[in-house]
Amino acid sequence: MRWRARTVVQQYCTLRAGRPQLKRDSLGSTTTSMTERARINRAITPAEIAVIRSALERAAVSPEFSALGAGLERLRAIDRCSCGCDSVDFVEHDPARPAKPIGDGIGTTPAGGTVGVIVWGRDDAVTGLEVYDLGAGDDDLKLPQPDSIRSFREGAA
User: Cα separation of 131 and 134, whole Å?
Assistant: First the structure.
């Protein structure tokens, strides 16, 4: 059964990695958004910084992305997902320079729910933070505790 669980998680990761930031349709699509985003303009929060750094340290897609944890304090959140989750964008979506998952893991919310965490970025910058349901339920799609974040490989073992 353990082998099956890893296979399902790996398939889910592959599907998630192909999705653009904040539940947007693929770049070739004619629709612009599956989920409305609320415009905001605020500094990144200490909790967001801690989650991003932890995800890049513990669940980076590639080791070179770990270095992008420096300088996060200068980021400003410009969009948030209107579904109620804690997902935010730090830069405008640019089809010419698409973001990709640079950190991808599992975490536990303060209420005990399991969520997925994707740090979106480019080779030179973090562009967004996405939190999605892995059993937490719609009411608990909050930032996970930074020390609970782990890679999918560890989460499936």
Answer: 10
First to last CA, the chain: 11
- For the chain, the residue count is 157
Nearest-angstrom CA–CA distance, 87 and 65: 20
Q: Which 3 state secondary structure label does DSSP give 39? A: strand
Q: Which residues pair with 116 in a beta bridge?
A: 106, 132
pTM: 0.76
Cα(79)–Cα(71) distance, integer angstroms = 20
The pLDDT of residue 155: 62
What residue segments make up the domains of the chain, in order of their start?
2-156
Query: Which is it for the CA torsion 144, 65, 104, 58, positive or negative?
Result: negative
Whether the CB-CB separation of 44 and 91 falls below 8 Å is answered with no
Residue 28, both tokens: 């070739």
| Residue stretches of the chain with pLDDT short of 50 | 1-34, 157
Token pair 């937490």: residue: 136
